[in-house]
Amino acid sequence: MSSKLKKAVSELEKQFNVPLSEVKKIIKDFHGEMSRGLAGQKSSLKMIPTYVDKPSGGEKGKFLALDLGGTNFRILEVELRGRGQLTPVREKKLVLDKKYVSGKGENLFNFLAHCIKDFSKEPRSIGFTFSFPVKQTGIAEGRLLHWTKDFSAKGVVGKDVVRLLSEALLRSATYNKRIAALVNDTVGTLAAHAYHDEDCDVAVILGTGTNACYQEEVNNISKWRGPIYLSDRMIINIEWGGFNKLRSTPFDISLDNASENPGAQILEKMVSGMYLGEIVRFIIRGLINKKIIFKGKNIPIFNEPKGFIAEYISRIEADRSPGLLDVNAFLKNKGIRNSTGEEREALQKICHLVSKRGARISAAALAAVLTKIDPKLLRVHTVAVDGSLYEKHPNFAKNIRLTLQETFGRRALRVRMALAKDGSGRGAAIIAAIATSL
Ligand code: GLC
Fold first, then answer.
1. How far is the CA of 209 from the centre of ligand 1 (A)?
2. Cα–Cα distance, 432 to 64 (Å, whole number)
3. Tens digits of residue pLDDT in 125-143
4. Which protein residue's CA is at the shortest distance from atom 12 of ligand 1?
5. Pick from 386, 371, 438, 404: which is nearest to 193 by CA?
6. Among 64, 112, 195, 417, which is least packed by CB within 10 angstroms?
7. Nearest alpha carbon to residue 237 among 198, 203, 271, 195
8. Closest atom of ligand 1 relative to the 241 alpha carbon
């Protein structure tokens, strides 16, 4: 590697490294923010009460579930058969057009209502997974606090999203559907996995966005002023993407300044799929501008916002061939014809540094949640995880596991990470079943 490139990479190595001492500091700060959030004090963790506990596994019936929170919108019909058994009956996936993501909120909800109408003519209760920070005021009631993940549909912030969807259903003359539960995707994922695994008490999403929820003792939720609640435990939606006690690099600061929501979602911007590619892009663009890599050539993937996406990071890190043949093919396809082996190695290394930092920060946050529930890790905990980053990135899951091992030693064996694919939709159906039986 040219000495300049070598020097730049070793500087980045220092900036993006998260040593065990820093993991421990994150855990401690995270505990502080969790407690303040639960007490209703100022905190970067919202710690939102969800008005629901884990399912018993006995819930039954046919329900519809909607899943809105990323690039796709899904609608599914699920049959719960009790004893932890569930059959997805039908499912439809639709790509959400940009005009709904950033246009008038009313159009977004009209679109959802039309999809529901087309999908089912039967009378059904609906579990509505809406994966944004919502201040719930009931199991089927909650106001959107602010958009995340670059959504910006107008006229929705501050409004009850269940009401917005119910009104849209009426506008589309759909009278036989009722929204029984409003659910965050983390909570849906927890419910879906806990339906058949009673050790499951934490769920994490690592996809476009990132967040987690867990089962808390109601006595510990000192801000809870809700109505009579039947269980002594409740699921808390942490909204961990908002955690802000983290060390930022200059690249994180540039990314934040250029984002839709500067100053917000700091952890999410260091961890989730929506942003990892952008961090790599900012780094490489800086090196190109200094003429340290790719002969200082102006290349669209590194020049245009969102030009470099998380899927590219996965592909680049997966290349184990000598000389990085697939990275070469990738770069050629993007207009960089004569990269050197050293440049390819540097690019791979940078992807690795950025994704590894994301994995270590999320592992630290997860370790904080686990030790909040069970300080000495005396019990077995299943953590249900969903999201493309966790599922598809070649090293992300492994780096989380390694960080947990470093942090907990042998006790890390008591933490089982389970991939819970598509849990959020199914979980919403389960929570709709709980809500209709109350
Ligand atoms: C964002 C949302 C959060 C959601 C997460 C994963 O962080 O604010 O509600 O759970 O993305 O989709």
1. 5
2. 9
3. 999 999 999 999 999 999 9
4. 209
5. 386
6. 417
7. 203
8. 7
Burial 20-59 (b: 16+ CB within 10 A, else e): eeebebbbebbeebbbbbbeeeebbbbbbbbbbbbbebeb
Other beta carbons less than 10 A from residue 344's beta carbon: 21
Which residues sit with their C-beta closer than 6 Å to ligand 1? Answer: 69, 131-133, 148-149, 184-186, 205, 207, 209-211, 239, 241, 268
Task: Please name the helix (run of DSSP H) or strand (run of DSSP E) that holds residue 204, with its range, or none.
Answer: strand 200-206
> Is pLDDT above 90 for 335?
yes
Give the CATH number of domain 51-183.
3.30.420.40
pLDDT, tens only, 221-248 = 999 987 777 789 999 999 999 999 999 9
At 95-133, the pLDDT tens digits run: 899 999 999 999 999 999 999 999 999 999 999 999 999
**Could you tell me if 365 and 243 are in contact, meaning their C-beta atoms sit under 8 angstroms apart?**
yes
Q: State the Cα–Cα distance between residues 74 and 367, nearest whole angstrom.
A: 31
- Ligand 1 geometric centre to CA of 144 (Å): 12
**Residue 385 in 3-state DSSP?**
strand
Grouping H, G, I as helix, E, B as strand and the rest as coil, residue 319 is coil
Which pTM does this prediction carry? 0.96
| Cα 213 to middle of ligand 1, angstroms | 11
pLDDT of 1 strictly over 70: no
Ligand 1 centre from 210 Cα, in Å? 5
**Cα(45)–Cα(213) distance, rounded to whole angstroms?**
11
Burial 375-405 (b: 16+ CB within 10 A, else e): eebeeebbbbbbbbbbebbbbbbebbebbbe
CA 20 – CA 431 distance, rounded (Å) = 38
Provide the mean pLDDT of the chain. 95
**Residue 107, pLDDT score:** 96
Rounded distance, CA 22 to CA 95, Å? Answer: 39
Domain 1-48+197-421 annotated CATH 3.40.367.20: yes
Q: Phi first, then psi: give them for residue 156, nearest 5 degrees.
A: -110, -35
Q: How many Å apart are CA 322 and CA 221, to the nearest integer? A: 54
Tens of pLDDT, residues 384-402 = 999 999 999 999 999 999 9
Residue nearest to atom 3 of ligand 1 (CA): 132
The DSSP result for 68-91, as a single string, is ESSSEEEEEEEEEEETTEEEEEEE
Handedness of CA 114, 120, 123, 129 (dihedral sign): negative
Where are the domains positioned within the chain?
1-48+197-421, 51-183
